[in-house]
């Protein structure tokens, strides 16, 4: 355990974040999130360009930055897949889990580690 988050391949759904400043979305981190969406979510299910899901990044970013949780992110991904893309391969839940884990390790863990060092 580090802080209140177990290490290893586990869900971070029960994790309670510490208050912090919002994370600004630089071009490289936006592209990283778009890449993660393509890799983990990919409702189209084809070899799409890396920026295919970039237009959905602001909405997903806002949820992750607000620590909305796996369920809220999963619902948002499913809604985007259904209403905007018109395809859904049923990957929203697993993608939401991976995206919230990516967010934790990319933004929250470094801040928590620095605060505890």
List its traits.
56% helix, globular, mainly alpha, 4 helices, 117 residues
- Calculate the mean pLDDT score and round it: 81
Identify the overall geometry.
globular
Count of DSSP helices? 4
Poorly predicted runs: 1-11
Count of β-strands: 0
- Tally of discrete structural domains: 1
Protein structure class: mainly alpha
What is the alpha-carbon Rg in Å?
Answer: 14 Å
The biggest sheet, with number of strands, parallel, antiparallel or mixed sense and barrel status, is: none
Q: Fraction of residues in helices?
A: 55-70%
Terminus-to-terminus distance: 15 Å
SSE ordering: HHHH
Q: Bin the strand percentage.
A: under 5%
Write structural notes for this entry.
It is a single chain. The protein has 117 residues and is mostly helical. It has one domain (27-116). The protein is built from four helices and no strands. It has helices at residues 27-41, 57-65, 70-85, 92-116. Helix 1 crosses helix 4 and helix 3 packs across helix 4 (92-116). The longest helix has 25 residues, at 92-116. The chain is globular. 23% of the residues are buried.
């Amino acid at each position: 355990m580090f802080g209140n988050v177990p290490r290893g391949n586990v869900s971070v759904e029960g994790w309670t974040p510490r208050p912090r400043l919002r994370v600004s979305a630089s071009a490289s981190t936006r592209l990283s999130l778009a890449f993660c969406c393509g890799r983990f979510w990919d409702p189209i299910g084809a070899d799409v360009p890396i920026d295919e899901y970039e237009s959905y990044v602001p909405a997903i970013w806002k949820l992750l930055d607000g620590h909305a949780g796996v369920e809220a992110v999963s619902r948002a991904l499913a809604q985007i897949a259904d209403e905007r893309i018109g395809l859904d391969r049923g990957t929203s839940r697993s993608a939401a889990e991976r995206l919230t884990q990516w967010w934790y390790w990319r933004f929250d863990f470094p801040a928590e580690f620095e605060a505890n060092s």
